[in-house]
Amino acid sequence: MAARTVKLAVIPGDGIGPEVVAEGLKVLSAAAPEHDLAFDTTSYELGARRWHATGETLPDSVEAELRGHEAIFLGAVGDPSVPSGVLERGLLLRLRFAFSHYVNLRPVRLYPGVTTPLADVAPEDIDMLVVREGTEGPYAGMGGVVRKGTPHEIATQDSVNTRFGVERVVRYAFAAAQRRPRRRLTLVHKDNVLSFAGELWQRVVREVGAEYPDVSVDYLHVDAATMFFVSQPQRFDVVVTDNLFGDIITDLGAAVAGGIGLAASGNINPENDFPSMFEPVHGSAPDIAGQGKADPTATILSAAIMLDHLGLEGAARAVERAVAEDLLARAKDGAAERSTAQIGDAIAERVAGQG
Ligand SMILES: NC(=O)c1ccc[n+]([C@@H]2O[C@H](COP(=O)([O-])OP(=O)(O)OC[C@H]3O[C@@H](n4cnc5c(N)ncnc54)[C@H](O)[C@@H]3O)[C@@H](O)[C@H]2O)c1
Ligand SMILES: CC(C)[C@H](C(=O)O)[C@@H](O)C(=O)O
Ligand SMILES: [Mg+2]
């Protein structure tokens, strides 16, 4: 019997979700024996198929079952056959909110051998950790529509920023910055326009920052930040930002660090009051679904973030090392075309071969 059995809920979801999740699980299984681990997985059929069959996005009974797991491993949700937002809000955001995933952790890292569209950058130039707020901002679902269908229709979408919500994510970001060699935190917002929310974020960063005198603090408006992500990625170490800005800049981060197929994330509840959820940054990619073309690396790296969160650092490093080796090998092979399963097999083989 393994020394540690992780009770893991799996939500493959839609589009390429099931394809990439299968490879993530393959790599976890390969890592398990070396690290005296086992995964007790339960797969949940949630997403477009279930919605079409039953009209359900996330039944309360399933949410309650998910709560009883140590972690959730998710592929992606969203399908062109379902109205936009039904699954994204009804499943993904519902889980992030219900399980208080207030830290959406999104590392942006250029691995050696990976091609970036940026000129003259080395891997050490792109190494940041975006700490995206995960439960508030314009995602909160507040607002509405009046005079619908008339020429005077008004749609509002409020951004919710609570002192409690901002402070807890800012504290997490400072603590993360303090553990990193450069000890630098950049707040990204738009306080020249979003003055109420921006001022709250600024004030909280100033106040919490007083407790972290060894962390240097910087501020960028989000528009300028997008420019510097491309022109001077070296500027960034830890970035803390609101839910929507964080969504946008992490797709950009993915693009500068080698593509969306490599970008990993964790939806973290740091107190472990609820299971945290791990998923690639990308979506269900309907344009390539079912063709074995999706890169599962983002999902595999999300599994490594999960292992870290579960306190299984040895296994996490082994998975990361296997990915790093595979990425280097890809560079040497002249990026030979491989299927989703072939990439998963190669990484699983490397991870099984490591101590
Ligand atoms: N966390 C999630 O579940 C999540 C995240 C983003 C988008 N979505 C949903 O996914 C659907 C599609 O959204 P989208 O097209 O804006 O974003 P997307 O990330 O699914 O796709 C954007 C582009 O990136 C490519 N791509 C994505 N993942 C890839 C991978 N692993 N390997 C290779 N190429 C990859 C796609 O083929 C597409 O061309 C929508 O329903 C959206 O709401 C879900
Ligand atoms: C699908 C959508 C709700 C989601 C988000 O905006 O958070 C996605 O884009 C992401 O980045 O995880
Ligand atoms: Mg996104």
TrEMBL record:
NAD(+) binds at residues 283-295. Substrate binds at residues 96, 106, 132, 223. Its cofactor is Mg(2+); Mn(2+). Residues 7-347 form the Isopropylmalate dehydrogenase-like domain. Keywords: Amino-acid biosynthesis, Branched-chain amino acid biosynthesis, Cytoplasm, Leucine biosynthesis, Magnesium, Manganese, Metal-binding, NAD, Oxidoreductase. Its EC number is 1.1.1.85. It is found in: Cytoplasm. Binds 1 Mg(2+) or Mn(2+) ion per subunit. GO terms for biological process: L-leucine biosynthetic process. Pathway: Amino-acid biosynthesis; L-leucine biosynthesis; L-leucine from 3-methyl-2-oxobutanoate: step 3/4. The keyword Iron-sulfur does not apply. Its main location: cytoplasm. It is an enzyme of class 1 (oxidoreductase). SMART domains: Iso_dh. It holds the Pfam family Iso_dh. It comes from the Bacteria. Mg(2+) binds at residues 223, 247, 251. Belongs to the isocitrate and isopropylmalate dehydrogenases family. LeuB type 2 subfamily. Catalyzes the oxidation of 3-carboxy-2-hydroxy-4-methylpentanoate (3-isopropylmalate) to 3-carboxy-4-methyl-2-oxopentanoate. The product decarboxylates to 4-methyl-2 oxopentanoate. HAMAP family: LeuB_type2. Homodimer. PANTHER family: D-MALATE DEHYDROGENASE [DECARBOXYLATING] (PTHR43275:SF1). This is 3-isopropylmalate dehydrogenase. It comes from Streptomonospora mangrovi.
